[in-house]
Every structure is written in structure tokens, then in C-alpha cells.
């Protein structure tokens, strides 16, 4: 790859959680960027198909080797071997089927109601009706995380962490965020963190405090999982119940206890964080684009007579503008903005080169991938890429071929057989939370959190105040938006 432009120390920037390397990838006019001597980023929609599809001659990068939390028990995210992943995926995906989500909806709605109550809790104002007063300042990055953590803990463990109503377990969010950052560093330098290293332990030297907190968290979750398995109730229908009962349709195998624990850990650590980022991003952009917020309010209030009528089903599914607002937020500020590398296997990999009209062939052993933030801001697929424009997803507003082109370059949940298995659950959480909160009342900006200036260099990649700033740590670290809420007249449900 001698003619492929390289970025300076990208692994260092990635491990620091900086945005500069991501901006460099996204603004490069060349579709190929040499991320490291053995890593290549391809910023095209053809690469998504050629690298991430079922037929692609690749497997997950060796950078995933240090990621399994439990010895000998990888999950659907950390499994490198395609056969092992396929077995796990066939079992785990049963927990996110349509019937499974219908069973899970009461648990989700219970948490969404609690979030709405917390956000719309009016501040007492002398001489005013409290119901017409604005709430106190709400940092949505925190509240959305409490929501998603309560939902996934209820569904994955059968027991909510109750972060929306109590601070007791909120420390877990910092522990998870810290361990995700540690994992991202390990992906860049796997030889430092590879399991079984006897002469040097990077974890011991770099993250001694984090390891203690993680051990505390793992001990607590293991106890919850063991208790849930012991007291399994056939009448309770949640993701855990499906994981415990589901069998591989090809082999008839169940998941072992360690595998159930590993998948539950994944749902809590990754599922809670990524969905919270998407919801927070949606509120950032809606609060700063009043015409979009007004259009969404009108769409929802003309469709649903009461807030309690906003439930899973064909009516919610038909709310195209709601989905467009959510998708555009994830395009602008992806919940996982970086590159998920794949290692090319024996025989090599061919990728169509749109610039030359030829096919490029890459040798075995090379890591290749597409930067999610980068391709989401590629003007070839998204004209005016740094503007929040939900209508770009609507065939009623844009030509069908333009919408199809945008969809071909949209990958907030990754793509192909290794895409997030919990995508249906994430969309349901996002739709119910955003729809109900927007339906109930008004919101206004009450702080600059989430705007430009959140990153390593304020003038390199984080200069746009209208863009919700996320810090790449495999998932996204974020702050804000800080908003205030007020119930609209007669919008009590």
C-alpha cells in the first residue's frame, strides 16, 4: 500500500479517545487511508458490502483477542472465529425476535414512564402553577444512560438496577465506561493485553483501580445471573428467559452458564451505552433544530391521541419522520463511531474501487474496515453532511435513488453477520423514549454541554457547535445535552 495516505500515530489517537484521527479519515479525498502498517480504512459503500457481508473472506481482527471478560467464554461481540460466532448468534438472536420484543415491551414502557416523570418534574416557582413551570436542568447523557441501563438490566438479568430512581448503582456506569476505554486501547495494542501474558500485565500497571471496580461489578452481576437461573420463572418473558431456553437450531445446543453471563455482560456494557448515545444525540439535534422538533411533535400528536397510546405496533412503525429523526442523529453522531476491523483470510479479499472502476485485491493478514463516522459524513452519500436533515431519509422529500444511496452507506450498528444482534431492541427503546418525551411537552436548551470544544484539540474535529460531540472509545463517550422540560397544556397522558 505504498501510495495509500497514512495518518500519524492513529493507534495512539484512538487509544486516547481523540477525534483528530477520525476527522482525518472522514476528510481524506482518497477512499483508502492507511490507518497503520497492517490496517487499511476504506471509506466507500462498496467496502461495507465487500468487507462486512456474509460472503466476505474475513474474520474479526486479532485486536479482539484481549476483549473476552471471562476466560474461555467469548460473546457475540468478542468471538473471532466465524463458526463459534455463528453458533452464538443463532441462539442469541432468538432473544430479539418480534415475539421476544412484544414480551419485553411492558418492562421497557415502565422505565420510559419513569424517565418522563423525572424529566417533566416541574421546579416549584412562586406564584405559578407547577404544572406549567419548567423542570430543572437535565443532563440527557446521564438520564438516557439510566434509562437504558435500567431496561437492559431488567431484560438481561431479570432485575433492574433502578438508576432512574436511586443513585445506589450509578457507579456502574463509570466502571463500564472505563472498561470500554481499556478494551479499545487493548484492541490497538493486543500484544500488551493478550490473555495468559506472564511477564507483563498491562492491566495491572495501567488500570489497577479499574480492575477492582470491574471485579466488584462482575461479582454482583454473576450473583444476579445465578439467582435468576436458580429461580427461573416460566411466566416471565424477557431476554434472559430466551437465552436460558433457546437452542441452536442446527445443533440443539444451549448456551452454557458462562456464555449466558458473557452475553448479559455485553447487553449491559455495550447495549446500554450505545442506545443512550443515540437517544441523547436525538435530543441534542431536536433541541437545536426547532423546525424539526415542531414537525416531529405535530406528527406524533396527530397520530397518537394520548401518550399511553404510543406503543409497539404498526402505528408506531408508520411514524417515518420519527425514524428519520433518530437515524439522522445516529448518522451525525454514531453511537460507535470508529472502525471495526476485519482480518483478511487465506485467499485474499477483492474490493470494488469506485474511483478507477476496477477491483482491488488485498492480501491475507491485512486488517480492513470502514470508519462509521467517516462514511456517515462522506458527501458522496450524504450531501451537506454536517447538517442535521431528517428529510434526507424520506422518499416523500427526496428521490428514491438518493435515499437508497444514503441507506447503502449507513451502518450505526455495523453491518452484515457481525452487526449488533440487539438492533431491534435498540430501535424500540429509542422510538418509545423519543416519541413519548416529545409528545408530552416542550424542551429548551439550558447548557452548552455536548457542543463543540469536547475533545483533545478544540480546533481539530470538534469545532462545529451544532454537532453533538462524541469521543470515540469503541462506543461513544458524551456529555449533554442539558435541557429543561415543560408539559404542554393538557398533555398529561
Main β sheet profile: 5 strands, mixed
Helix content: 40-55%
In what order do the strands lie side by side in the largest sheet? 1-2-8-5-3
Mean pLDDT: 84
Low-confidence stretches: 2-9, 454-458
| DSSP strand count | 12
The secondary-structure element order is HHEEHEHHEHHHHHHHHHHEEEEHHHEEEE
> How large is the share of residues in beta strands?
5-15%
Q: Which structural class should the secondary elements be placed in?
A: alpha+beta
> Compute the gyration radius: what is it?
22 Å
Determine the N-to-C terminus distance. Answer: 60 Å
Textual characterization of the structure:
With 493 residues, this protein is α+β, with helices and mostly antiparallel strands. The chain has 18 helices and 12 strands. It has helices at residues 10-16, 20-27, 45-52, 82-92, 98-119, 140-157, 171-188, 190-193, 202-206, 208-230, 239-245, 257-288, 290-303, 314-317, 320-332, 372-376, 400-408, 423-440; strands at residues 32-36, 39-42, 58-60, 138-139, 342-344, 349-353, 358-362, 367-369, 441-445, 471-473, 475-477, 482-487. Strands 1-2-8-5-3 form a 5-stranded mixed β-sheet. Strands 4-12-9 form a 3-stranded antiparallel β-sheet.
Amino acid at each position: 500500500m505504498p501510495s495509500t495516505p497514512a495518518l500519524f500515530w492513529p493507534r495512539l489517537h484512538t487509544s486516547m479517545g481523540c477525534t483528530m484521527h477520525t476527522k482525518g479519515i472522514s476528510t481524506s479525498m482518497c477512499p483508502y487511508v492507511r490507518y497503520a502498517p497492517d490496517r487499511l480504512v476504506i471509506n466507500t459503500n462498496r467496502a461495507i458490502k465487500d468487507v462486512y457481508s456474509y460472503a466476505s473472506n474475513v474474520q474479526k481482527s486479532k485486536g479482539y483477542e484481549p476483549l473476552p471478560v471471562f476466560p474461555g467464554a467469548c460473546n457475540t461481540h468478542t468471538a473471532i472465529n466465524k463458526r463459534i460466532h455463528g453458533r452464538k448468534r443463532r441462539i442469541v438472536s432468538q432473544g430479539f425476535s418480534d415475539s421476544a420484543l412484544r414480551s419485553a415491551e411492558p418492562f421497557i414502557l415502565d422505565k420510559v414512564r419513569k424517565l418522563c416523570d423525572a424529566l417533566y418534574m416541574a421546579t416549584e416557582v412562586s406564584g405559578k402553577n407547577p404544572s406549567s413551570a419548567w423542570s430543572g436542568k437535565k443532563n440527557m447523557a446521564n438520564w438516557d444512560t439510566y434509562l437504558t441501563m435500567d431496561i437492559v438490566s431488567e431484560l438481561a438479568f431479570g432485575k433492574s438496577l433502578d438508576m432512574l430512581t436511586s443513585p445506589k448503582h450509578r457507579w456502574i456506569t463509570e466502571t463500564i465506561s472505563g472498561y470500554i476505554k481499556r478494551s479499545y486501547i487493548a484492541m490497538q495494542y493486543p500484544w500488551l493485553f493478550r490473555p495468559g501474558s506472564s511477564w507483563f500485565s498491562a492491566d495491572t500497571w495501567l488500570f489497577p483501580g479499574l480492575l477492582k471496580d470491574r471485579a466488584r461489578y462482575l461479582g454482583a452481576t454473576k450473583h444476579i445471573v445465578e439467582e435468576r437461573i436458580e429461580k427461573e420463572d416460566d411466566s416471565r418473558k424477557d431476554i434472559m428467559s430466551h437465552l436460558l431456553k433457546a437452542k441452536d437450531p442446527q445443533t440443539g445446543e444451549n448456551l452454557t452458564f458462562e456464555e449466558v453471563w458473557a452475553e448479559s455482560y455485553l447487553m449491559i456494557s455495550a447495549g446500554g451505552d450505545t442506545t443512550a448515545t443515540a437517544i441523547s444525540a436525538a435530543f441534542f439535534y431536536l433541541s437545536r433544530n426547532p423546525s424539526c422538533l415542531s414537525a416531529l411533535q405535530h406528527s406524533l400528536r396527530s397520530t397518537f391521541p394520548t401518550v399511553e397510546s404510543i406503543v409497539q405496533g404498526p402505528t408506531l412503525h408508520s411514524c417515518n419522520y420519527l425514524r428519520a429523526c433518530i437515524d439522522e442523529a445516529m448518522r451525525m453522531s454514531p453511537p460507535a463511531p470508529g472502525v471495526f476491523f476485519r482480518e483478511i483470510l487465506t485467499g485474499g479479499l477483492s474490493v470494488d474501487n469506485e474511483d478507477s472502476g476496477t477491483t482491488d485485491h488485498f492480501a491475507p493478514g491485512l486488517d480492513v474496515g470502514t470508519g462509521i463516522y467517516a462514511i456517515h459524513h462522506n458527501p458522496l452519500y450524504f450531501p451537506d453532511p454536517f447538517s442535521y436533515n431528517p428529510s434526507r431519509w424520506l422518499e416523500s422529500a427526496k428521490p428514491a435513488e438518493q435515499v437508497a444511496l444514503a441507506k447503502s452507506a449507513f451502518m450505526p450498528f455495523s453491518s452484515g453477520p457481525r452487526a449488533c444482534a440487539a438492533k431491534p431492541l435498540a430501535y424500540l427503546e429509542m422510538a418509545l423514549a423519543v416519541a413519548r418525551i416529545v409528545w408530552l411537552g416542550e424542551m429548551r436548551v439550558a447548557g452548552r454541554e455536548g457542543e463543540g470544544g469536547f475533545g483533545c484539540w478544540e480546533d481539530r474535529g470538534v469545532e462545529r457547535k451544532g454537532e453533538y460531540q462524541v469521543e470515540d472509545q469503541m462506543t461513544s463517550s458524551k456529555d449533554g445535552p442539558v435541557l429543561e422540560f415543560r408539559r404542554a397544556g393538557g398533555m398529561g397522558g
